């Protein structure tokens, strides 16, 4: 049974509901709260099933143990208080487009006790920004034996298993099995490549803390498995080749043209009959939007993504927008391609929708189409090293980056997100803190 939100705003002001507090949703709610909510020109509500926000491109660092989650989480309640919007916890389950209400499931605590009842929230404008999930393509054994890095909890669970595997191997009195201390990462996109490079560094540091019966070169094995012919298949070949060279220099074993047929408790079976022994398997191959989107009565594609117009409105309802990974947005000028699910796209879309809602919904101006601007790609390959390219940096030409300078530019991507949430002063403080504490030991999480 659904109940109305007891704190629902008066319908005399425009009600904007943003569902999903990822990079796109939280940036949008913050912008709208600052520009409209604080001034009483609209009521902005953010709905998310979690209490805190974490920037998803950093999940591989949590998994590898090189980042402390607690220092990088952001409370939705605190952000809402600081920036003039309302935070409500819960998971969207349905949509009544006739009554313009969002249906949200009851929220339960870790003991199964109800925190909130099932509710519905009225809106005048709805923005869906629920992100994406891992797509396992129905591969047998993935759900039972592989870890998908979708949330900070997933990343922390993988890291605990990694630390336990090292301690177990050090303590046992029998020779290691072929699959022990081996990690297979399925999917050589940005997440897979970055995790492989980071693990080679952090596992070396982990075993240096007293696990002296483990020989890193002999016992630790990182395998990166890609169904296509090269790593980073969605990015330029030059970038892919540079990343491959650096991975091989770090002794990551790369398997291309290797489609996974099944995953089990001791490794990965490939479609061509080969086998990769592994104690830990990470699935990072492909994404899809949450399944409930296909049941909202809006147009979706095969990946459950909501189809949107160039204005970012859904094709069947002008009052419902979709942004981020859950939106199938036309890439103007490159039709029929859609905009890739990347952090820079989410950031641009959030800024565009914020401007559009101020101009159109409140000032009566026509909506303008959004055009994606590809500023290039930066891939982290461990501490102080990245490869990438910046598009249009030199009067329309491409600037190719690697090494330390590329790593500094990679850090700037996160700082852009921080600036959107907190302003430039916070970014300066974060950067100063990062460089002054970068040599603090230990640099890898040990539990």
Task: Explain the overall architecture.
It is built from 11 helices and 29 strands. The protein is an alpha/beta fold and 447 residues long. Helix 1 (23-37) runs parallel beside helix 9 (343-362). It is globular, with a radius of gyration of 23 Å.
Oligomer: single chain
Radius of gyration: 23 Å
The largest sheet has its strands arranged as: 6-3-2-12-25-24
Which percent range describes the beta-strand content?
A: 25-35%
The number of strands is 29
Q: What form results from the Cα inertia axes?
A: globular
Major pleated sheet: 6 strands, mixed
Helix content: 25-40%
Termini separation: 42 Å
Number of helical regions: 11
What average pLDDT do the residues reach?
A: 87
Q: What structural category characterises the helix and strand content?
A: alpha/beta
Unreliable parts: 391-400, 437-442
Features:
alpha/beta; globular; 25% strand; six-stranded mixed sheet; 447 residues; five-stranded parallel sheet
